Amino acid sequence: MSEAYFRVESGALGPEENFLSLDDILMSHEKLPVRTETPMPRLGAFFLERSGGPETDHAIPQGSKLELPLWLAKGLFDNKRRILSVELPKIYQQGWRTVFSADANVVDLHKLGPHFYGFGSQLLHFDSPENADISQSLLQTFIGRFRRIMDSSQNAYNEDTSALVARLDEMERGLFQTGQKGLNDFQCWEKGQASQITASSLVQNYKKRKLTDMDD
User: Which end of the chain, N or C, is less packed with Cβ atoms under 10 Å?
Assistant: First the structure.
């Protein structure tokens, strides 16, 4: 039976998201606090509480604080035109970075932000003076949590793992599932239940084309 959806890898840890990835689509809709640096004409209709009224063409006044989805904030951000400035979400500010550096394993990342690493990597797009500290914190947080995640995935065979993954962000859950698959494959191999190795479809198709050419 064929799968209805083949998972597409996230590109959020790179410069741009992969919009064929469901994880990236969901991540790009997470809200980001911003401050308008110039009036925004005709956009007040979408933010009625910030609108300047009909006499201002429903403009969003300069200095308004909004929460925009990441994809929209990235589209409007421009260092030269100064349309808006971005405020760091609390979990990426110095206070939380101190917590992560003390012991990243005690933090419930999924509760704070299910796409913690991907969203944090995309914040580097906005040229904050804290970018170097944010990137270092993301890296050290991942390193600090990686071993426990993989240890857990390798020591939970045929068990309910919902409690183990509840505190992990989406990327960490993917790592956990990869570890679980490796464990299950090894157990099947050890019991003699591993599937027979067969030629890949690319090799089979190549042989078919070669036979067809020979017949011609």
Answer: N
| Closest alpha carbon to 148 in 172, 171, 116, 178 | 172
The domain locations on the chain are 1-87, 90-206
The pair of three-digit structure tokens given for residue 122, joined into one six-digit string: 């995309």
Alpha-carbon gap, residue 7 to 70, rounded angstroms: 22
Better-predicted residue by pLDDT, 130 or 12: 130
For 173-201, what is each residue's pLDDT tens digit?
Answer: 999 998 988 888 888 887 777 665 555 56
What are the φ/ψ torsions at residue 31 (nearest 5 degrees)? Answer: -85, 145
Give me the amino acid identity at 1. Answer: M
Beta bridge partner(s), residue 66: 34
> How many Å apart are CA 185 and CA 166, to the nearest integer?
24
What fold, for 1-87?
Answer: Methane Monooxygenase Hydroxylase; Chain G, domain 1 (1.20.58)
For 90-206, CATH number?
A: 1.20.58.2050
Which 3 state secondary structure label does DSSP give 134?
helix
Sign of the CA dihedral with 126 first, then 127, 129, and 134 last = positive
pLDDT for res 156: 81
Nearest to 36 by CA among 23, 46, 21: 46
